[in-house]
């Protein structure tokens, strides 16, 4: 199984070497690794150049964008700039973050899953983060069948069917919903433990707090499902403020007629899928 990696990188001088070293140690190496230097102001580009000189699988793309670390559009825009220089000669493609340490067999196992299941669309392992005591613990606040945005691997057929990645907050949820809409499966592998060197969201701009609610609007969740999802998130985060931020983001998006990420038909499928999952969880 041949695969490409595209890695959006913004000011990752502290972690990038660890990520690139773990790629070079893979038992199944990628055909190409596109390193997208997304407006970095630290020594990120020097590190990229060092690895390009070391191994021809690495290619650099420089991107000019905002210096603010916002979830969603910034990272996907950088990913898409890297994607433009790739051909279609791959079996699966991976959007990877630049602050991870992968197990050495990570992509060999991912490739095995794709080869074994023709309907498998998205696959990945689980993110672990280090506690103050030094222990590595799983950080996966979503359902266990969700693949985190930091480690998304897509089969070529699935990636084409969903139209690539959406340049908006919520891209790593809508991709899975659209994959299911097109009949693809999603699989996680608990044996694949990825070390995340920077806790999730630590570098994000504070203005990002209402974007989750906007994302729910643009995915056509509807008001009631957004309320339920926001309550669940608030309980999980132990933060009433996160509920109000979500709902404010949703209502502001509705007021401004924000552009939807999905069609009416896709939105209906998404709402039905969400209601089915809600009812299943209530029964259990």
TrEMBL record:
Residues 5-142 form the Glycosyltransferase 2-like domain. InterPro entries: Glyco_trans_2-like, Nucleotide-diphossugar_trans. This is Glycosyl transferase family 2. The keyword Transferase applies. Keywords: Transferase. One of its GO terms (molecular function) is hexosyltransferase activity. The keyword Transport does not apply. It comes from the Bacteria. It comes from Maribacter stanieri. It holds the Pfam family Glycos_transf_2.
């Amino acid at each position: 199984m041949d695969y490409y990696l595209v890695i959006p990188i913004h000011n990752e001088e502290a972690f990038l070497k660890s990520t690139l070293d773990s790629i070079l140690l893979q038992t199944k190496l990628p055909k190409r690794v596109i390193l997208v230097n997304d407006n970095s102001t630290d020594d990120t580009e020097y590190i990229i150049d060092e690895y390009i000189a070391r191994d021809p699988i690495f290619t650099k793309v420089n991107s000019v964008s905002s210096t603010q670390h916002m979830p969603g559009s910034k990272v996907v825009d950088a990913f898409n700039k890297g994607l433009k220089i790739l051909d279609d000669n791959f079996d699966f493609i991976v959007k990877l973050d630049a602050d991870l340490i992968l197990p050495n067999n990570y992509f060999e196992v991912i490739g095995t899953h794709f080869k074994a299941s023709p309907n498998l669309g998205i696959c990945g392992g689980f993110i672990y983060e280090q506690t103050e005591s030094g222990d590595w613990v799983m950080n996966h606040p979503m359902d266990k069948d969700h693949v985190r945005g930091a480690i998304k691997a897509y089969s070529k057929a699935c990636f084409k069917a969903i139209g690539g990645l959406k340049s908006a907050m919520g891209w790593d949820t809508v991709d899975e919903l659209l994959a299911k809409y097109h009949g693809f499966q999603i699989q996680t592998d608990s044996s694949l433990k990825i070390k995340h060197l920077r806790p999730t969201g630590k570098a994000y701009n504070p203005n990002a707090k209402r974007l989750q609610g906007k994302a729910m609007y643009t995915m056509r969740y509807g008001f009631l499902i957004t309320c339920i999802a926001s309550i669940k998130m608030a309980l999980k985060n132990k933060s009433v403020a996160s509920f109000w931020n979500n709902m404010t983001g949703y209502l502001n998006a509705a007021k401004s007629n924000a552009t939807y990420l999905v069609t009416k038909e896709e939105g209906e499928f998404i709402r039905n899928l969400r209601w089915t999952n809600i009812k299943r969880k209530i029964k259990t």
